[in-house]
């Protein structure tokens, strides 16, 4: 999609964010000063990113079904804006809201997460790796809330680029988004639950079990643990979408595990061994002082025997050694055993989202 970034006249803290968009390496993007903007010029773009823009002009742009992205201090909802971004916004007693009523709050974007920020501003992105692996042209909708204008521009993009499958991760408390997704043939596939745990001094104690040991995985371990990966994750959205073949899904997770061991996707992989034989693993991606669990699995033969808790305990211990302060993990809402294991290890739910898939070539 063609993007126009309107550079504000005054150098506020939001000006720094907006001018920094140049570093994200977008194609089909132009940067113009606020003084040069007019309705005729804007009409050739799909997305307009701004801090300040006259309300009358916003209304005209909105009627053209152009997506408006406002990066500014959030004060109140503006019906003409599709995406609000205020990285400095904090929810308090004065601006608290009832999500069941769909009351709007801005996106509190982590600007250090360049990938997520780029997906958000791009609105819809072709996923090159996914498309190559699944042998289908796949794209991802970045905003977690939908509007009529976002749907309109995304549909034009899908048709123009001959997209076969669209992935969308929705904010679960926004009724307008859920209704728009369902009306536009998006099929619900999964509940995505994010949990977090603070890593502290307690994490330096490992739960010990007889004949149990831990170590970092090497590529020589792949043969032993690959079958565990291939037989796990039956609750994932890929298994619940019949248009992905089971064979391909198994290969997807096996490839993820291999890349984690090599450090080319996740940072590394930790093993739990029983009598020196690997029976489970945990892949981790480390960024600054935070870490995220990618894949976590225990061989079916050894499940419900406390090995998950032992491995999680060791993971927290290892992360505390390299001064990681926060650990995140994402799991499926239908994966009750995983949720129970994480909550038993003092993880707290921080976010709930909904995965939707839309196939255009069924």
Describe the structure.
- The protein folds into 2 domains: 3-184, no CATH class; 196-351, Gcn5-related N-acetyltransferase (GNAT) (Aminopeptidase), CATH 3.40.630.30.
- It is elongated, with a radius of gyration of 23 Å.
- The mean pLDDT is 90.
- It has helices spanning 13-19, 39-42, 55-63, 114-122, 128-134, 148-160, 175-183, 222-230, 246-262, 307-321, 336-344; strands at residues 3-7, 29-33, 47-50, 67-71, 83-85, 124-126, 138-141, 165-171, 187-198, 212-216, 268-274, 277-287, 290-298, 326-332, 348-359.
- The chain is of the alpha/beta class.
- The protein contains 11 helices and 15 strands.
- Strand 13 (290-298), helix 10 and strand 14 form a beta-alpha-beta unit.
- The strands form 2 sheets. It has a 10-stranded mixed beta sheet with strand order 6-7-8-15-9-14-13-12-11-10, sandwiched between helices. A 5-stranded parallel beta sheet has the order 2-1-3-4-5, with helices on both faces.
Fold topology:
Blueprint: E1 3-7, H1 13-19, E2 29-33, H2 39-42, E3 47-50, H3 55-63, E4 67-71, E5 83-85, H4 114-122, E6 124-126, H5 128-134, E7 138-141, H6 148-160, E8 165-171, H7 175-183, E9 187-198, E10 212-216, H8 222-230, H9 246-262, E11 268-274, E12 277-287, E13 290-298, H10 307-321, E14 326-332, H11 336-344, E15 348-359
Parallel strand pairs: 1-2, 1-3, 3-4, 4-5, 7-8, 13-14
Antiparallel strand pairs: 6-7, 8-15, 9-14, 9-15, 10-11, 11-12, 12-13
Could you list the spans in which at least 5 consecutive residues all have pLDDT below 50? none
Query: Helical percent range?
Result: 25-40%
Could you tell me the radius of gyration in angstroms?
Answer: 23 Å
| Total count of helical runs of at least 4 residues | 11
**Topology as a string of helices (H) and strands (E):** EHEHEHEEHEHEHEHEEHHEEEHEHE
The percentage of residues in β strands lies in 25-35%
Q: Quick one: overall form? A: elongated
């Amino acid at each position: 999609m063609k993007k126009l970034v309107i550079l504000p006249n005054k150098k506020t803290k939001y000006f720094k964010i907006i001018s920094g968009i140049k570093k994200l390496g977008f194609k089909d993007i132009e940067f113009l000063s606020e003084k040069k903007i007019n309705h005729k010029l804007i009409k050739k773009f799909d997305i307009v990113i701004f801090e300040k823009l006259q309300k009358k002009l916003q209304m005209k742009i909105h009627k053209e079904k152009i997506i408006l992205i406002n990066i500014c201090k959030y004060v109140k909802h503006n019906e003409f804006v599709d995406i609000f971004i205020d990285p400095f916004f904090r929810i308090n007693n004065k601006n608290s809201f009832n999500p069941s009523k769909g009351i709007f709050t801005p996106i509190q974007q982590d600007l250090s997460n360049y990938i997520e920020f780029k997906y958000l501003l791009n609105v819809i992105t072709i996923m090159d790796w996914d498309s190559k692996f699944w042998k289908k042209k796949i794209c991802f909708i970045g905003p977690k809330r939908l509007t009529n204008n976002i749907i309109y521009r995304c549909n034009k993009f899908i048709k123009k680029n001959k997209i076969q499958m669209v992935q969308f991760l929705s904010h679960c408390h926004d009724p307008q988004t859920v209704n728009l997704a369902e009306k536009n043939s998006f099929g619900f596939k999964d509940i995505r639950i994010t949990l977090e745990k603070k890593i502290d001094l307690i994490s330096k104690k490992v739960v010990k079990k007889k004949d149990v040991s831990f170590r970092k995985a090497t590529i020589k371990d792949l043969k032993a643990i690959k079958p565990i990966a291939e037989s796990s994750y039956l609750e994932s959205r890929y298994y619940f979408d019949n248009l992905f073949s089971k064979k391909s899904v198994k290969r997807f997770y096996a490839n993820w595990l291999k890349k984690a061991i090599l450090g080319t996707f996740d940072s590394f992989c930790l093993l739990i061994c029983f009598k020196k034989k690997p029976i489970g693993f945990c892949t981790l991606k480390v960024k600054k002082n935070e870490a995220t669990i990618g894949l976590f699995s225990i061989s079916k033969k050894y499940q419900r025997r406390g090995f998950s808790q032992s491995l999680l305990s060791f993971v927290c211990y290892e992360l505390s050694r390299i001064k990681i302060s926060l650990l995140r993990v994402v799991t499926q809402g239908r994966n009750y055993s995983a949720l129970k294991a994480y909550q038993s290890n003092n993880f707290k739910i921080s976010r709930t989202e909904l995965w939707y898939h839309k196939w255009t070539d069924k």
